[in-house]
Amino acid sequence: MHLANLLFLDISSGELIVIVLVAFLVFGPRRIPEMARQAGKWMNEVRRVTSDIRREIREETRKVTDEFDPMKSPDKEGTA
Asked: To 10 degrees, the CA torsion angle through 54, 71, 68, 53?
């Protein structure tokens, strides 16, 4: 499935034009740019949060993998 299909949930270009026209009629030309900015802010926040979650999962997975890696030599901390 293409990214465009996923984002627009298989909406054709004709349907997308109708949705934009209805939004234009309902909200008016002054509110559309404001709503687009707000949607952009929300999408950036979602991207940031998902990026943070991915990073945390990668770090924890690496820690667990390193801990149980049989080829890794044991730490020699605390021995004199």
From this structure: -10
How many domains is the chain partitioned into structurally? 1
Which DSSP state fits 72?
S
Report how far residue 73's alpha carbon sits from residue 66's, in angstroms, rounded to the nearest whole number.
Answer: 10
Q: What is the 3-state secondary structure (H, E, C) of 33-65?
A: HHHHHHHHHHHHHHHHHHHHHHHHHHHHHHHHH
Block residue for tokens 């030309």: 29
Question: What's the pLDDT score for residue 31?
Answer: 87
58 in a structural domain:
yes
For residue 38, tell me if it sits in a domain. Answer: yes
Report pLDDT digits (tens) over 52-68: 999 999 999 999 888 88
Is residue 23 classed exposed, middle or buried when 0-12, 13-18 and 19+ CB atoms within 10 A define those classes? middle
